[in-house]
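Our preliminary data section would be incomplete without showing what the modeling component actually yields. Below, a chain of 309 amino acids is followed by its predicted structure, encoded as tokens that our downstream tools consume directly.
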Amino acid sequence: MAAWAIVAAATGLVAAPVGMLPAAKPTLNNLPPVGTIGLDVLLRAQGYEVVPLVNGRRSGWVYVKAQVEGRPTLLMVDSGGSANGLDPEWVHSIIPHVVGVRPAADGRQPAFTITSSLTQFHPKLRVGDLVVPKLPFSYLPPNGPMRLPNDRVAECVGLLGAPFLRYYSALIDYSTNRLYLLDPAKQEPALRGNWEGVEVDMNGGRTPIGPDDRPRLVITSASGVYTSPGHKWEFAVRFNRSATPKQMDWVLDTGAVVPLLYKLDGDALTVTGYLFQNGPDPKRRPTKLSGGRGDPNSAVTFRRVKPKP
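Predicted structure:
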């Protein structure tokens, strides 16, 4: 029996086929070492991608090789960080007109002044082989920890915190210096494309949507845009195909998560959530695909917009 199957059966993460389980109950003596072959094979079987980590020589911090706006650099993996962050001086050097940061007038250090700590921006980012969708970044304090040479990692210009790690369901294996990332966009490639809302199920009744009022939905590899009269939301998208009904989350630029249900039937896509009337509601996920009587959720049926011949 393959080692990964024993680990899978023990952890419950992967269901082993009937007849493959060993006669004796797995013990610590016959399980492969966690963090080596067993864990690596198990996570790869689940669809996780592996990004090597770079160890700090003194601090114990860990980094990943990344590209920000096409520039190679290192980013710290901050499992306790509440936000993604970049050094403002470095940001200004590659995006001269970025909002929220400006050179100090008198030339004193710090050379750049953050004009708004609430400013968020969405740089183009690649980590390993993953092209990261639009996730929000904030500015780090000038001359902060990222700029200290504790680890002799002068090219580290920022950190990846909770928004990045949560989006990719990240797992860090310190024993092998590996970061495991599960790309949610690869779980439902059939949803990619342009969609037009044609019908809404709300308060127990179905109503066609007129041509002038139809919402539009565009889903790319890992992000999307929803537009309707008076509303526009840009978001990163992730899926949970194992749930019943299937679940889809929209991660907005503000960091809010909009929990939805969805059903794909050929060129028809039903999306249910508490968002289609007064804006997104990140507080709750509906329990059924239809819009129930007395329930404020709406189920919108979208039709795929096919290119004209």
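Helices lie at 3-11, 37-45, 88-94, 162-167. The CA atoms of residues 60 and 99 lie 33 Å apart. Preliminary results of this kind motivate Aim 1 of the renewal.
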